[in-house]
From TrEMBL:
This is EGF-like domain-containing protein. Residues 1-24 form the signal peptide. The keyword Lipoprotein does not apply. PROSITE patterns: EGF_3, PAN. InterPro entries: EGF (IPR000742), Pan_app (IPR003609). It comes from Desmophyllum pertusum.
């Protein structure tokens, strides 16, 4: 779309602040306390963003329309023009979150607040969402590129996932049922294992959940907890309750994003519960304070309904803030999780 030079709008009741603001990197500042508001707008000729209007006003100039947008804390873009040429439509949506609403319209110009999204930082089909108040952005990435901020996947490959809000597939009886390569990327879940040619002491695993927490583990044949997880994820061997329990060596992940686990991860199980072979990595083989909990909730050799309701399946979040009775400890369909692997450099 045609881009013209950006223009800026400054509203100041105390001129002394003018220089501070003009020198700032920030593209929009709404600071009524200091009496200064400021925005850089980018102009799109012959365009109108056809979305819900916060307000429609008549103003003489497009700069006046920018001023009105600044004064409305929800406004992120505006259309200016129309039949009489002076209609100012303030919008809460913008070209980044609602690209499908951008229409050709010779009687209008569209203005959006300048944003890091204007540089298209999101790769692999990711959608850029502008966070105007911090002059920053967030990429909404397709699941298989969900690894880093700009949807780069790097050298990580997904081998297991459960998309948030997927109905538990009732015919599945094993969260590690399938060989690597069995799933298609469009599948809503993939109960896959590590590739058979992966090598234990040089494989890393990355887990990302739907809360955005990212944990990284390194497999290690000398660590009993790590080795049990390897036996499950790679060799498809069951690990019954009691075999790997409160080991003196724990297998803690690096928290790349989010908080570290609140308890030592020194216990591992991969065993059947309520008809589904399920995985649990935690501090005592009983639900809560788990990092990986896939399938059905478990406690010791059974499960405890107050911690994890019977016949509720899914995945649990990587980080658990506390141990409370109720569903928050348990695997559940409202959480999403993807597991990736790579060979360590
Ligand atoms: C380990 O988990 C149990 C609940 O399963 C909890 O009561 C206990 O406090 C935890 N231990 C630590 C050190 O967090």
């Amino acid at each position: 779309m045609p881009l013209l030079k950006p223009f800026s709008v400054l509203l100041a009741s105390f001129l002394i602040f003018l220089f501070n603001v003009a020198l700032s990197e920030q593209q929009i500042v709404r600071d009524s306390a200091k009496g200064v508001s400021y925005a850089n707008f980018i102009r799109h000729k012959n365009r109108r963003l056809n979305t819900e209007q916060l307000e429609s006003l008549t103003v003489q100039q497009h700069a006046g329309c920018g001023g009105k947008c600044l004064l409305n804390s929800k406004c992120t873009s505006m259309n200016y023009g129309g039949a009489g040429g002076h209609e100012c439509q303030l919008l809460v949506a913008n070209k980044f979150d609602s690209p499908e609403a951008m229409t050709s319209d010779e009687s209008f110009e569209h203005f959006s607040v300048a944003s890091p999204c204007d540089k298209n930082p999101c790769l692999n089909g990711g959608k850029c969402l502008s966070i105007y108040e911090h002059n920053s952005y967030r990429c909404q990435c397709p699941w298989e590129f969900n690894v880093w901020k700009n949807c780069e996947r790097g050298d990580w490959t997904a081998f297991w996932w459960y998309n948030k809000d997927t109905t538990w597939p009732s015919h599945e009886t094993d969260v590690l049922a399938y060989n690597f390569g069995h799933c298609r990327s469009s599948d809503p879940y993939c109960f896959g294992r590590l590739p058979t040619d992966a090598i234990e002491d040089s494989t890393e695993m990355l887990a990302i959940d739907s809360e955005g927490t990212k944990y990284k583990w390194s497999f290690n044949s000398a660590n009993p907890v790590a080795h049990a997880a390897w036996r499950a994820f790679h060799d498809h061997e069951m690990v019954p309750y009691g075999q790997v329990l409160k080991e003196s060596a724990s297998w803690g992940p690096d928290a790349l994003v989010g908080k570290s686990p609140i308890a030592q991860q020194n216990s591992f199980m991969y065993r059947e519960q309520n008809g589904v072979k399920s995985v649990m990595l935690d501090n005592d083989s009983c639900d809560c304070k788990t990092t990986l909990s896939l399938g059905h909730g478990m406690c010791f050799a059974g499960h405890v309904s107050s911690l994890s309701p019977a016949n509720q399946y899914g995945v649990d979040t990587l980080y658990e803030p506390a141990c409370v009775s109720g569903v928050e400890n348990a695997p559940r369909p409202s959480v999403g999780l993807t597991l990736y692997f790579r060979t360590r450099e």
